[in-house]
Amino acid sequence: MKKERLDKILSSQNIGTRREADGIIRAGRVSVNGAVERRPAFRTDADTDSIALDGAPLTVKRHLYLMMNKPSGVLSASRDPSARTVVDLLPRPWRRRGIFPAGRLDKDTEGLLILTDDGNFAHRMLAPKSHVAKWYEARLASPVTDADAPAFRSGVELSDRACLPAELSVLEGGAEPLVLVKIREGKYHQVKRMFLARGNRVLALRRVRIGGLELDPRLGVGQARELETREREAVFTGPVLQK
Description:
Elements: E1 4-5, H1 6-12, H2 18-26, E2 30-32, E3 35-36, E4 43-44, E5 51-53, E6 56-57, E7 65-70, E8 100-101, E9 110-116, H3 119-126, E10 134-140, H4 148-154, E11 167-172, E12 178-183, H5 190-197, E13 202-210, E14 213-214, E15 224-226, H6 229-237
Parallel strand pairs: 9-13
Antiparallel strand pairs: 1-4, 2-3, 2-5, 5-6, 7-9, 7-15, 8-9, 10-12, 10-13, 11-12, 13-14
Helix pairs in contact: 1-2
């Protein structure tokens, strides 16, 4: 990590704005390698130097990776002047500059959403060549037919395009069945449009898995937590069991 201004390092960890970080440093509350540093413009390397705030060591995280159980009615966006976004749901320490949802869920879709400020990670996860699959649980208005699963495997034909092959399985039968859908792309309203093309309708939709990462069942709707390293890797490499 290259040397950066001390006030920039503090603000990047959501320890106030740059102006607030400036005041904290000038007040003598920050030390570098054991020595109080009162210059906001002082340049230091957070990877090799020891930074402390009010005597407590400061662990500087270059990037933040969060798992959220997104609720319905909230936009998958960083900010919006007229609607609540997933970033608005985060505790203040995680609303750091640059945080954004890696991929989108429709406003009325719930479930697993990853938020990060690591653009390279998000690009790798979303790039078609990465082949990162996504699983959705869908509650349907009508029972599935014997022809639906084969149609999904062949690639459902929409009005403007053909979907890539997908997988469909029934979790619960009945008049309004619960099904599991696995897709390898994420076009606008794709799962809903696939069922509409088959003469059915999605009543509720919830994403439960991205790659090998499953939604933590302990996360309440609207809650988030940091991802462990093994969980970030599981997005690309395979399943990880929740503790």
